[in-house]
């Protein structure tokens, strides 16, 4: 091998090593970026699932522990009014938001919204709604809480 | 090359560790959440199970002091905390009421007096729904209402005798299909007869009649004196409309009883007859004139008049009758010696007989003085009447002596002048009159030479059965004691009265007044008031208590 050939051989050897490094760096960077992205995506996905799970568990937990006893329902004899006393017999506080009364005979439904229906555990509340009840008629009463738990009873007007 | 290979491994390992840690964290969190949720479900389910095991029963409810008095029993297997009582009055007017409770009951324990001191008032005739609420959310309901399904039974004797005591038994059963008490149950037992109630209903009421139970009430009555049907009905205070039971019974005489108690004059007179309208007995036959009042009544229930041609009072003792004083008719009377055997006081109509109109009574009255005799005479007097329906005759024994009193029995139309207004008939009494007054008089007609009656004198008056509401008007005044009025099984009444003081002086009289309601009649109807006197001390030598002045007064009731 002459000098020229030797120099060419050395030049050739030197150029090949740099590209490998560059290539390697590029690949490593790409892998790192992709890895970070994947990890971040996966983590965020898991966090989202975790939050969903937490929300679901919390909701269901509260719903399970939310219980109302419809203690007494009576119809006011002096006017179109229905009264009811509700007991919170669960272990957490709840908020009564909606009362739906359905005339079982005619299937007509009347809805009443309450904003002050909070009941602490072991407490009770009496609610009054203007309702043109008809004598000797069966009614279905559906009570909904803020957590959308529903409690139902049936009464017959006097 | 060796260094580069090691770096990638490190990077990969870091990624692996991050990924693994994240996954494990997520899984751990999920497992914890699921575990917490499971625990919550378990707790909730435990509460539901507890609620299911909790059981209370309102076993008894009464009303005391105007408030409910409930007994609540914990029939479950867990302690119970009662928190509220709700009371709904079913009258549709009264607002629902509630009271807070704070009562703990262990399993098997019962608590009395729940509802007292709550301020919720209650009455036994109203209907209530009661509701007791527990802390776990169970509710027990109970009803207090007389307005519920009941069965009432009335047990009566089929037939009773007049005047007989009999019992009426009322049974009331609470047939409610719901837990229900009838509290302070008061039976109401009515009848359409004029019954005297001796006692009952016993018990007068019961505190509470639980569902499925029966209460028995017994009442005792006296059957009326007259025959007939009696209707009873029974219900109770607050009963549902139409909850009433009716039953009937009969008051009737047995044949034996009727035969044993009916006397000749206890019913309406039904045939032409002669009445001993008035016979004095005993009779004073002293030297002074002692007129006794005699009367002969003719009763004519026929639809035609009866002619009376002659009447007479025959004495078997010749010469006993000394003098007479005619009263009615005022003429036609004479004393007729009939040979050696008898004397006769007679009225003879001759060509003008007296006619007793259809359905009426007539009378012949005369006063007779007996001759002074040295011995006591028990003389059979025969009273006769010759009528257009035949000859009528009746006998009566009279005791006479110069030392006897002179007892007369008659009626009077004027109590202020009874002896001068003596009579033996009441004509034209209006049927249906309330409290028609009758005046029965006893007189000791003995004058100066006669004697007093040395004891009380009794009088018995038989009032026929059609007359009702017999009352003692004199009522212990005018020298009389309070009368006893007994009912006979055939519906007639006997008035028993006596003078309140003795002696019954000679030449005095006492008038006893009684009243009765004559029957409503469609046509004239005739009755006889048989009046008998008793002189209890008229006994001993030459005397007999059998001596009794008698009066049979004819009474005509008109429409």
Spell out the blueprint of helices and strands.
The complex is a heterodimer of chains A (158) and B (559).
Chain A lengths: L2 H63 L2 E8 L5 E8 L5 E10 L5 E5 L4 E2 L4 E7 L7 E8 L4 E7 L2
Antiparallel strand pairs in A: 1-2, 2-6, 3-4, 3-5, 3-7, 7-8
Chain B lengths: L1 H52 L2 E9 L2 E8 L5 E10 L7 E9 L4 E8 L10 E7 L4 E6 L5 E6 L3 E2 L4 E10 L5 E6 L1 E5 L4 E7 L3 E5 L3 E9 L5 E9 L8 E7 L3 H7 L11 E6 L4 E2 L6 E10 L5 E10 L5 E8 L4 E6 L3 E7 L5 E3 L3 E11 L6 E11 L2 E12 L5 E6 L9 E2 L1 E6 L5 E9 L13 E6 L4 E5 L11 E4 L5 E6 L9 E10 L7 E10 L15 E9 L1
Parallel strand pairs in B: 7-11, 9-17, 19-28, 31-39
Antiparallel strand pairs in B: 1-2, 2-5, 3-4, 3-6, 6-7, 8-10, 10-15, 11-14, 12-16, 13-15, 16-17, 18-20, 20-26, 21-24, 21-25, 21-27, 22-26, 23-24, 27-28, 29-30, 29-32, 32-37, 33-36, 33-38, 34-37, 35-36, 38-39
Largest sheet of chain B: 7 strands, mixed
The portion of residues forming beta strands of chain A comes to 25-35%
The major sheet of chain A is characterized as: 5 strands, antiparallel
What's the assembly state of these chains?
Answer: heterodimer
* Mean pLDDT metric of chain B: 88
Known CATH architecture of the largest domain in chain B:
Sandwich
């Amino acid at each position: 091998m002459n000098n020229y050939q030797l120099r060419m051989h050395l030049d050739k050897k030197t150029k090949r090593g740099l590209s490998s490094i560059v290539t390697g760096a590029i690949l490593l960077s790409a892998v790192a970026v992709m890895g970070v992205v994947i990890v971040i995506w996966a983590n965020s996905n898991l966090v989202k699932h975790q939050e969903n799970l937490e929300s679901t568990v919390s909701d269901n937990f509260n719903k399970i522990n939310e219980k109302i006893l419809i203690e007494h329902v009576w119809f006011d004899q002096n006017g179109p009014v229905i009264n009811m006393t509700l007991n919170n017999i669960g272990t957490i506080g709840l908020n009564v938001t909606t009362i739906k009364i359905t005339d079982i005979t005619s299937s007509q439904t009347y809805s009443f919204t309450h904003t002050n229906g909070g009941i602490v555990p072991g407490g009770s509340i009496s609610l009054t709604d203007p309702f043109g009840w008809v004598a000797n008629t069966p009614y279905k009463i559906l009570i909904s809480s803020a957590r959308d738990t529903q409690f139902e009873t049936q009464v017959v007007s006097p | 090359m060796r260094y580069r290979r090691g770096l990638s491994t490190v990077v990969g390992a870091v990624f692996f560790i991050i990924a693994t840690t994240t996954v494990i964290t997520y899984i751990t969190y999920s497992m914890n959440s699921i575990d917490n949720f499971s625990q919550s479900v378990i707790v909730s389910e435990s509460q539901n199970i507890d609620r299911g095991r909790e059981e209370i029963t309102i076993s008894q409810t009464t009303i005391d002091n105007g408030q409910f008095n409930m007994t609540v029993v914990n029939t479950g297997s867990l302690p119970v905390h009662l928190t509220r009582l709700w009371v709904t009055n079913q009258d549709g007017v009264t607002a629902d009421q509630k009271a807070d409770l704070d009562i703990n009951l262990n399993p098997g324990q019962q608590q009395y007096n729940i509802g007292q001191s709550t301020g919720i008032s209650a009455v036994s005739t109203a209907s209530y729904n009661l509701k007791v609420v527990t802390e776990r959310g169970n509710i027990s309901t109970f009803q207090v209402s007389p307005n519920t399904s009941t069965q009432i039974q009335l047990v009566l004797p089929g037939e009773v005798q007049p005047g007989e005591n009999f019992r009426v038994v009322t049974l009331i059963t609470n047939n409610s299909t719901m837990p229900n008490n009838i509290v302070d149950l008061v039976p109401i037992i009515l009848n359409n007869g004029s019954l005297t109630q001796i006692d009952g209903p016993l018990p007068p009421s019961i505190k509470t009649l639980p569902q499925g139970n029966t209460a028995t009430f017994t009442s005792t009555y006296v059957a009326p004196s007259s025959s007939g049907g009696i209707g009873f009905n029974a219900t109770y205070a607050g009963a549902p409309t139409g909850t009433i039971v009716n039953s009937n019974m009969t008051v009737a005489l047995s044949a034996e009883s009727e035969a044993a108690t009916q006397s000749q004059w206890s019913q309406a007179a039904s045939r032409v007859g002669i009445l001993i309208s008035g016979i004095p007995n005993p009779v004073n036959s002293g030297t002074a004139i002692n007129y006794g009042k005699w009367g002969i009544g003719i009763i004519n229930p026929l639809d035609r008049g009866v002619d009376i041609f002659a009447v007479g009072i025959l004495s078997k003792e010749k010469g006993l009758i000394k003098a007479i004083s005619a009263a009615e008719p005022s003429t036609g009377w004479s004393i007729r010696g009939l040979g050696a055997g008898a004397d006769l006081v007679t009225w003879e109509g001759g060509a003008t007989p007296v006619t007793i109109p259809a359905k009426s009574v007539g009378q012949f009255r005369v006063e007779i003085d007996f001759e002074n005799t040295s011995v006591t005479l028990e003389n059979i007097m025969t009273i006769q009447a010759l009528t257009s329906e035949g000859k009528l005759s009746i006998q009566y024994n009279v005791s006479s002596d110069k030392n006897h009193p002179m007892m007369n029995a008659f009626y009077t139309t004027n109590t202020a002048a009874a002896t001068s207004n003596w009579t033996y008939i009441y004509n034209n009494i209006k049927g249906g009159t309330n409290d028609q007054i009758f005046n029965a008089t006893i007189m000791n007609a003995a004058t100066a030479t006669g004697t007093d009656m040395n004891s009380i004198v009794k009088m018995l008056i038989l009032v026929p059965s059609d007359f009702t509401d017999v009352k003692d008007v004199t009522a212990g005044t005018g020298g009389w004691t309070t009368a006893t009025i007994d009912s006979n099984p055939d519906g007639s009444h006997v008035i028993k009265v006596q003078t309140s003081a003795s002696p019954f002086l000679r030449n005095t009289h006492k008038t006893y007044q009684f009243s009765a309601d004559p029957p409503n009649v469609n046509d004239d109807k005739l009755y006889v008031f048989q009046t008998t006197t008793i002189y209890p001390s008229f006994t001993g030598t030459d005397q007999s208590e059998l001596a009794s002045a008698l009066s049979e007064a004819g009474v005509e009731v008109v429409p």
